[in-house]
Design brief:
The protein is mainly beta. It folds into 2 domains: about 35 residues, no CATH class; about 130 residues, Nucleoside Triphosphate Pyrophosphohydrolase (Alpha-Beta Complex), CATH 3.90.79. It is built from 2 helices and 10 strands.
Length: about 170
């Protein structure tokens, strides 16, 4: 992880990382916490298939991913699901049809900084398959994949791999 060196309070090169969640300034006592960030991931499911996207950006460019993203301030996890599904797939969803499944910790590395996240997994079942026009800046493709042929090694994030290991046992 890229370590910050300069204190944002006093400006001196005295910021110390504790190795887990906090930077502290040895000079002025300032503390900066790397708190856990909330993120959502939505399993869009039709019959025994799931709709996955392929990442067009780092981290994990080229790997499969569930639609989702980070929770914004003053936003519920369900509102995040609705917003992210619209932003990524132009899909309008009814929040009441989202089914919360589980949560898993994850590390999301961005620009050499490790962000600890809590990934909240939801399921959204659809009555028929669909195709969407993609926002190609984030996603290079979206595909329907039969659950019985999903290759966990092709998934972008460890939390999603752990999620699908359990999810596939229960279908």
């Amino acid at each position: 992880m890229k370590l910050l060196k300069y204190c944002p309070s006093c400006g001196k090169e005295t910021l110390n990382w504790d190795g887990e969640k906090k930077w502290s300034c040895l000079e002025c006592g300032f503390s900066l916490y790397n708190n856990v960030a909330g993120a959502v991931a939505v399993v869009i499911r039709w019959d025994n298939e799931v709709y996955l996207t392929r990442r067009n950006r780092d981290p994990k460019k080229g790997k499969l991913d569930l639609a989702g993203g980070f929770v914004d301030p003053k936003e519920s996890a369900e509102e995040t699901c609705k917003r992210e599904l619209f932003e990524e797939l132009q899909l309008n969803v009814d929040i009441s049809n989202l089914k919360y499944l589980t949560s898993l910790p994850n590390i999301y590395q961005y620009k050499e900084i490790d962000y600890n996240t809590i990934d909240l997994f939801y399921e959204y079942r659809v009555s028929e398959k669909f195709e969407v026009s993609l926002e190609l800046s984030e996603i290079s493709e979206a595909v329907w994949i039969p659950l019985n042929s999903l290759d966990l090694d092709d998934l972008a994030f460890d939390s999603q791999k752990r999620f699908f290991e359990e999810y596939l046992k229960n279908i």
